[in-house]
Amino acid sequence: MSERTIFDKILDGEIPCHRVYEDEHVLAFLDIFPLSKGHTLVIPKERKAHLHELSDAQSAAIGRVLPRIARAVMKATGATAYNVLQNNGPEAHQAVFHVHFHIIPKLGDSGLGLSWRAGKLEGDAAKVLATAIADAL
Ligand code: 5GP
């Protein structure tokens, strides 16, 4: 099992949070350093650092409620656009090593800033890559 994180302490009630949703498998609460009003974190109760380590049951539980929580965030903030962000690994901006999904309303200039440096998908290499990923499933 990975080290206890700040989110484990929130789950165990040692640290308070502004909770917006909870069920048997999932907790959602406001981010303490929001990128915009309503920035919400949705976490599985299973203590895994990375998305790819989550059990099917916990993944399904998150997937079931994520759209519902997004709807509620939009309704409460008046946002009509938002990003769902899920970071894995420090190189990918992960700071808390307990799986979490950010729901980040885009409200004017506030929200997620993105630098999207798109490459180009080349036919032959893409075929090999798609096969490699499919074979790894
Ligand atoms: P990451 O960069 O790991 O994807 O995001 C971690 C998020 O957790 C950050 O947006 C940060 O503001 C939030 N966070 C860190 N510590 C706390 C805390 O104690 N309480 C709450 N509510 N959010 C936290």
Describe the structure.
The mean pLDDT is 96. The chain is α+β, with helices and mostly antiparallel strands. It has helices at 6-11, 56-77, 123-136, and strands at 19-22, 26-30, 40-44, 82-85, 101-105. The chain has a single domain (6-136), classed as HIT-like (HIT family, subunit A, 2-Layer Sandwich). Strands 1-2-3-5-4 form a five-stranded antiparallel β-sheet, covered by helices on one side.
Protein topology:
Elements: H1 6-11, E1 19-22, E2 26-30, E3 40-44, H2 56-77, E4 82-85, E5 101-105, H3 123-136
Antiparallel strand pairs: 1-2, 2-3, 3-5, 4-5
Bound molecules: guanosine-5'-monophosphate.
User: What is the radius of gyration?
Assistant: 17 Å
| Count of β-strands | 5
Classified in CATH, the superfamily is: HIT-like
* Strand composition percent: 15-25%
Estimate the helix proportion, in percent. Answer: 25-40%
Structural class assignment: alpha+beta
Number of domains: 1
CATH topology: HIT family, subunit A
Spans of at least 5 consecutive residues with low confidence: none
Major sheet attributes: 5 strands, antiparallel
CATH domain class name: Alpha Beta
What is the chain-wise order of helices and strands? Answer: HEEEHEEH
